[in-house]
């Protein structure tokens, strides 16, 4: 298995949790190193699809989750006493919301260094400054305090510090093997990405407007502290982003074609139903602990590998969305809310059986298959909009025609093959999907 990953690309495979089908190459695993071979034959929506009931898999997720209010104090024992610790954080939210003093109090007996300023969509250029600090001070443990961007940046810092090649960017752009990493832990303040319990990281580079990912078992956090109270201060925009990201992570794994995996289906539906039930509670009361806790746990479960085991996976929405973030700076989840409905309609025939199941079980719809499928997509769009993520490019003043051109030209330049669970979303279809979201 190629160690490189991006949700797609000539050299992709987010190798820790998710699965992506690449035409002519079988299925490449994202986040997990799981091969999904296609065997037996079935017919779906007029398409012939071959599949083998639940695929073989190996699953080992080593992350210790420490969940609940007051958990930050446990850092005192979780972080190795002898190591020089680098606390990595973002633009200052942890200083405004009281997380920083809790972390520093817990680490009072440790030798602590700090690195702040990791941006949303963490930048390679910034992370490399932390790499210099780690090398200079011989840092032995990294503690990420913040959202998914800080954590992904920390994972990259961990892998880049001891990188033997000439440029650690090669880990992202060339799939260069990660052979060592500084151990890391996490205090998560934004439930969204699942990064707290997976081995992937997404890093952007200013100079080339690229957003790429890598995966390595060496960057699983040793532990992740999930205290829902740290999320009370999230602005509506970030609360919305987190809910939508977790929702779309679930759909990317669930909404493909039936693979006779009823447990994974129902686990995914449980996450979707829980997010739909809990989200409105936060709109009324952002400090509702139970709702914050439930959403936090949903986000972790949506991308820790569990719901995607042994099944086909899509990830085309993420692939297209990352390019839109790279070119236009939209938040990650904002791109997903726009693109997923376009993918679902564009691939309606192949996804029909699962769209109907989703409509019936998650949205309580009934009727003819095509009507249920379309209504399920509409319900999803309404949900994203109500939560706070618009579903059209025009909401962000992005010209759909220009975006379609830029993203497809990039795919062509990369020699991008088809994407999606069948590998049948060609570059032309990607352009159509983006155009449909004007
Ligand atoms: O930088 P600070 O000051 O900390 O502020 C952050 C940031 O501005 C703020 N924030 C975080 N916690 C807060 C808070 N503000 C108030 N109260 C709190 N408790 O929120 C802003 C956004 O933070 P960010 O970390 O960027 O958000 P998120 O967690 O959504 O992470 C997004 C990044 O993760 C990647 C995305 O592509 C994007 O780069 N992803 C990572 C994945 C993975 N590693 O598995 C998978 C995902 O699909 C995704 O691609
Ligand atoms: Zn995501």
Layout: helices, strands, pairs:
Layout: E1 4-5, E2 16-22, E3 26-31, E4 41-44, E5 47-50, E6 64-67, H1 75-78, E7 84-89, H2 93-96, H3 99-106, E8 111-115, H4 124-137, E9 141-146, H5 148-161, H6 169-173, E10 184-188, E11 200-205, E12 210-215, E13 223-226, H7 236-254, H8 262-284, H9 289-302, H10 316-328, H11 332-346, H12 348-363, H13 369-387, H14 400-414, H15 427-435
Helix pairs in contact: 4-5, 7-8, 7-9, 7-11, 8-9, 8-12, 10-11, 11-12, 11-13, 11-15, 12-13, 14-15
This protein binds 5,6-dihydroxy-NADP (NZQ) and zinc ion.
Summary, kept brief:
By secondary structure, this protein is an alpha/beta fold. It has helices at 75-78, 93-96, 99-106, 124-137, 148-161, 169-173, 236-254, 262-284, 289-302, 316-328, 332-346, 348-363, 369-387, 400-414, 427-435; strands at residues 4-5, 16-22, 26-31, 41-44, 47-50, 64-67, 84-89, 111-115, 141-146, 184-188, 200-205, 210-215, 223-226. A hairpin with a 4-residue loop joins β11 and β12 (210-215).
């Amino acid at each position: 298995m190629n160690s490189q990953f991006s949700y797609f690309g000539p050299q992709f495979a987010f190798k820790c949790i998710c699965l992506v089908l690449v035409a002519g190459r079988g299925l490449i695993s994202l986040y997990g190193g799981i091969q999904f071979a296609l065997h037996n034959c079935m017919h779906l929506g007029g398409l012939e699809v071959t599949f083998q009931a639940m695929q073989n898999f190996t699953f080992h997720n080593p992350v210790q989750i420490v969940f609940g209010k007051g958990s930050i104090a446990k850092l005192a024992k979780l972080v190795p006493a002898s190591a020089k610790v680098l606390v990595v954080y973002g633009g200052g939210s942890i200083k405004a919301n009281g997380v920083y003093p809790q972390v520093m109090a817990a680490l009072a007996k440790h030798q602590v260094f700090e690195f702040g300023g990791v941006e949303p969509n963490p930048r390679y250029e910034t992370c490399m400054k932390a790499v210099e600090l780690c090398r200079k001070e011989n840092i032995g443990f990294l503690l990420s305090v913040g959202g998914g961007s800080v954590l992904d940046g920390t994972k990259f810092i961990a892998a880049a510090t001891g990188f033997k090649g000439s440029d650690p960017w090669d880990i992202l752009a060339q799939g260069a093997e990660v052979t060592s990493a500084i151990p890391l832990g996490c205090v998560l303040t934004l439930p969204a990405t699942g990064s707290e319990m997976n081995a992937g990281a997404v890093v952007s580079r200013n100079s080339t407007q690229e957003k790429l990912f890598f995966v390595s078992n060496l960057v699983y956090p040793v532990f992740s502290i999930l205290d829902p109270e740290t999320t009370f201060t999230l602005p509506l925009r970030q609360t919305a982003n987190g809910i939508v990201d977790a929702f779309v992570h679930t759909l990317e794994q669930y909404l493909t074609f039936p693979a006779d995996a009823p447990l994974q289906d129902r686990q995914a539906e449980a996450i979707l139903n829980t997010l739909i039930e809990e989200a409105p509670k936060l709109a009324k009361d952002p400090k509702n602990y139970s709702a914050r806790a439930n959403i936090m746990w949903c986000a972790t479960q949506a991308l820790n590998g569990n719901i995607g085991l042994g099944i086909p996976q899509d990830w085309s929405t993420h692939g297209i969305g990352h390019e839109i973030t790279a070119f236009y700076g939209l938040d990650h989840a904002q791109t997903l809310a726009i693109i997923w409905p376009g993918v679902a309609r564009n691939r309606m025939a192949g996804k029909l059986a699962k769209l109907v199941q989703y409509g019936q079980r998650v949205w309580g719809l009934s009727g003819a298959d095509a009507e249920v499928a379309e209504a399920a997509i509409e319900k999803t769009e309404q949900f994203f909009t109500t939560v706070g993520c618009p579903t059209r490019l025009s909401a962000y003043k992005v010209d759909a025609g220009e975006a379609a051109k830029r993203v497809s030209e990039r795919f062509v330049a990369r020699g991008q093959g088809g994407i999606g669970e069948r590998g049948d979303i060609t570059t032309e279809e990607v352009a159509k999907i983006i155009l449909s979201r004007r």
